[in-house]
Design a protein that fits this description.
mainly alpha, two-stranded antiparallel ribbon
């Protein structure tokens, strides 16, 4: 959901000139046209989080802390997977896929914002990739930007693609756990490592293809560092003061997210309904209301899911809830843009709440997963304990 319409503000002089041209133009680039005079540049927008030296410093500290937490947490997750053979299961491979997607956010996306914000604090001239810093002369008649390569052309799709990978991986984890709960006897035959790896590769390919869809299937979009969200966002090139006719291609992003979230919710409902039914039957058996041999006749539960499968399903349910909570502000932001509101301050919090979700998964694992906690303990005690006789 990083590829959204950016909040833009257009000076009156620019707004007057826009309807008089038929060439595709970027509003924020037009704001930096010659009307400001040679050698002058539009100052970055002052928002609640980035207005004044103190607020900018606190924002940079927050970004650096978030990047550190994302990288360290997901490196620990990957290391535990490599050091513990019990983690090399289909569910473990899905966790690794999720950790890699989260770590890419901490390695590429957040540090780029940190570098850009520090550049804005140190220098008086915004970088060339900053929203509105491109000159109108750099616009081509074909609808693209002509000039130096924009880093946002890489950072923006990476953030969008990693977001799509996260939701698709959570969906696959939910399906894998539902098979273990609903069909415990067929779990090993249906969910294999080969099938899981194939699905992971397909999810990565489809996610990044979707993230690049506005650039591949349309020439009316560009990527630039947004002055409100402080991230790289998709920005449409305007025709005579109007959105391009194919601007609705951005609706693919919320449609994809809402579809997978809805599917994840439906599968979770089926899984937890089965867990509740099994728990009720187990309670009745313990109270003597059902006979021990009633399972064959329909009263018992002959194919019982294991306790670890039930706990893993609940953990994935918490992961789904955490991702939905971090994704909801972006959904509200999209609705606001459709209505016509420009929520600049809110866009910052919406995008960075979504980025903060990349460090939540390791916290959920450490609280819920006993094997993960044990793997972390062994990892940090490895240098202090003798290696002989140790089993992984």
């Amino acid at each position: 959901m990083t590829a959204l319409l950016a909040n833009v503000s257009v000076p009156r002089s620019t707004a007057v000139l826009l309807p008089t041209t038929d060439c595709p133009i970027n509003l924020t680039a037009a704001a930096q046209s010659g009307e400001l005079g040679p050698g002058r540049s539009l100052a970055p927008l002052c928002t609640l989080c980035c207005c004044g030296l103190l607020n900018r410093t606190l924002t940079v500290i927050f970004m650096v802390t978030l990047a550190f937490a994302i990288v360290v947490g997901n490196v620990v997750t990957l290391t535990v997977f490599m050091q513990t053979r019990q983690s090399r299961t289909p569910q473990g491979y899905l966790k690794v896929s999720l950790a890699i997607a989260d770590m890419m956010v901490g390695v590429l996306v957040v540090p780029f914002s940190v570098y850009t914000e520090i550049s804005l604090m140190v220098t008086s001239t915004p970088p060339v990739w900053y929203q509105g810093s491109s000159s109108a002369s750099s616009l081509s008649s074909l609808g693209g930007l002509v000039g130096p390569w924009q880093p946002c052309m890489l950072i923006g799709p990476v953030f969008a693609g990693c977001t799509f990978v996260s939701i698709s991986t959570i969906f696959l984890m939910t399906v894998e756990r539902s098979v273990a709960i609903l069909r415990p006897l067929h779990k090993d035959a249906l969910v294999t490592r080969r099938r899981t790896l194939l699905l992971i590769l397909l999810s990565w390919a489809a996610s990044f293809l979707l993230a690049l869809a506005p650039l591949i299937f349309s020439g009316n979009f560009t990527l630039e560092y947004n002055e409100c969200s402080r991230m790289c966002n998709y920005t449409p090139l305007w025709y005579g003061g109007q959105l391009p006719p194919d601007a609705n291609i951005l609706l693919l992003f919320p449609a994809f997210d809402f579809t997978l979230l809805g599917g994840t919710l439906a599968v979770n409902i089926l899984s937890f309904t089965s867990i509740r039914r099994y728990s009720r039957k187990r309670k009745l058996l313990s109270e003597g209301s059902l006979r021990d041999g009633g399972g064959a006749g329909g009263g018992g539960c002959p194919h019982r899911p294991s306790f670890s499968d039930i706990k893993a399903a609940k953990t994935i349910g918490i992961l789904t809830f955490a991702f939905t909570a971090s994704f909801s502000p972006i959904a509200v932001f999209v609705l606001g843009n459709v209505v016509g509101y420009t929520w600049c301050n809110f866009s910052f919090f919406a995008f960075w709440i979504l980025a903060g979700n990349s460090c939540c998964n390791v916290i959920i694992y450490s609280v819920r997963d006993h094997r993960f906690r044990k793997g972390v303990t062994l990892l940090f005690q490895r240098d202090q304990s003798p290696p002989h006789g140790e089993k992984t």
